[in-house]
Amino acid sequence: MNLTGMRAVVFGGTSGIGLAVVDQLAAEGVDVLAASRTATDRNKPEEQASRHSVDVLDREDLSKFYEDHGPFDIMVNTAVPSSRAQGPFAEMTLDGFQATFDKLWGYVNSVRLGLTSLNTNASIVLVSGFPAKKCLPGASAISTVGNAIEGFVRAIAPEISPRRINAVSPGIIDTPLFPQEGVAREEFLQQTTEAHPVPRPGTSAEVAQAVLFLLKNDFTTGTVVDVDGGATLP
Fold first, then answer.
1. Which of 50, 85, 86, 171 could covalently link to 96 via disulfide, CB atoms 3.0 to 4.6 Å apart?
2. For residue 176, is the peptide bond before it cis, meaning its omega torsion is within 30 degrees of 0?
3. Mean pLDDT of 54-72
4. CB-based contacts of 8: which residues, under 8 Å, 6+ apart?
5. Are 59 and 69 in contact (CB under 8 A)?
6. CB neighbour list of residue 150: distance below 8 Å, 6 or more residues apart
7. What is the pLDDT at residue 86?
8. What is the pLDDT of residues 185-225, one digit of tens each?
9. The pLDDT of residue 48 is above 80
10. Which of the four pLDDT bands, split at 50, 70 and 90, describes residue 178?
11. What is the pLDDT of residue 2?
């Protein structure tokens, strides 16, 4: 499918994977809106993309955004909550575990409130993560949310047809989500991925390529594509 001339919104589109998706869509000739909670992120999308401030957890704000800027042919949501609970399940607070689900609620909001602003043949892509299939110690909250996102995609795909909805599931990706700097950051990413079949962290651009595959292939819906360097293999 040729994406040239289509209109897209990318939530979380001013940094990391979302920024890479914005850049690749713009290169395909798509009219892209990059949306995020603030308009002051340190990374900026290509000049072809316009930036907008919107909080996907604020339903009133999100509804107004769709009303003001729709309709769209493409919606991608890569937004993540400001905090995610990590650590042993028996030791983390229940409030922290619950707050991790803000990612799911943001995705649900963006799909449900966006349906009237998404064209009949629109395509949606969300982001889960490899812990949904292979939970590491201390990642129970993140794993549970990832499973919920993938289940959400499968559950609503028949209901919103002919619109399509899919997800990508990234592995360890070198993005601003990892706060370490300099050598400490490089060592962390190397140690975390050295046992994987592809022994390195992925890049935002590689995940964005999978997003574009799902957007272009109009015979895919209710599907999850792994982009994890083999991290989920036995």
1. 85
2. no
3. 96
4. 25, 30, 31, 32, 33, 72, 73, 74, 75, 76
5. no
6. 128, 132, 167, 169, 224
7. 86
8. 778 888 888 889 899 989 999 999 999 999 999 999 999 99
9. no
10. low
11. 94
Two tokens at 38? Answer: 């603030």
Give the chain's length: 234
What is the dihedral sign for C-alpha 9, 10, 13, 18?
Answer: negative
Q: Return the exposure string of 192-206: e unless at least 16 CB atoms fall within 10 Å of the residue's CB, then b.
A: ebeebeeeebbebeb
The Cα 227–Cα 201 span in angstroms is 11
The residue with tokens 């360097």 is 229
CATH T-level fold of 7-226: Rossmann fold (3.40.50)
Angle at 103 between CA 76 and CA 94, to 5 degrees: 175
C-alpha 213/C-alpha 32 separation (Å) is 17
pTM: 0.91
**Which residue, among 137, 145, 68, has the nearest Cα to 106 in the 3D structure?**
145
The answer, yes or no, to whether residue 38 has pLDDT greater than 90, is: no
CB 213 within 8 A of CB 225: yes
The residue whose two tokens read 């595959």 is 213
